[in-house]
UniProtKB/TrEMBL annotation:
GO cellular component assignments: oligosaccharyltransferase complex
Compartments where found: Membrane
Protein function: Subunit of the oligosaccharyl transferase (OST) complex that catalyzes the initial transfer of a defined glycan (Glc(3)Man(9)GlcNAc(2) in eukaryotes) from the lipid carrier dolichol-pyrophosphate to an asparagine residue within an Asn-X-Ser/Thr consensus motif in nascent polypeptide chains, the first step in protein N-glycosylation. N-glycosylation occurs cotranslationally and the complex associates with the Sec61 complex at the channel-forming translocon complex that mediates protein translocation across the endoplasmic reticulum (ER). All subunits are required for a maximal enzyme activity.
Keyword Transmembrane recorded: yes
InterPro entries: TMEM258/Ost5
Transmembrane segments: 14-39, 51-75
Subunit structure: Component of the oligosaccharyltransferase (OST) complex.
Family to which this protein belongs: Belongs to the OST5 family.
Name of the protein in its database record: Dolichyl-diphosphooligosaccharide-protein glycosyltransferase subunit OST5
Recorded superkingdom: Eukaryota
UniProt main location, coarse: membrane
């Protein structure tokens, strides 16, 4: 029995598009986080909102960076 080749679940042609979209969304969440931190007072801040916004921004920026590297051919 011959082994099956491993293929990507995402078509290679989508890498640049996914990179731009995910990095853009990540930067928007990062901007939202910074604006929230700069405009809210210490007493009105919510730790849950801060952690959620930072985690979502981190996930989108992480996957966006991965697709940037894949689109540029660094890990191919």
């Amino acid at each position: 029995m011959a082994a099956k080749a491993i293929s990507s679940p995402v078509p290679v042609d989508w890498y640049p598009t996914l990179a731009v979209i995910m990095v853009s969304v990540g930067l928007m969440f990062t901007a939202t986080f910074f604006i929230y931190e700069a405009t809210s007072s210490r007493r009105s801040r919510s730790l849950a909102k801060e952690i959620t916004t930072a985690a979502v921004a981190s996930i989108f920026l992480g996957f966006g960076s991965l697709f940037v590297l894949l689109a540029s051919g660094v890990y191919v």
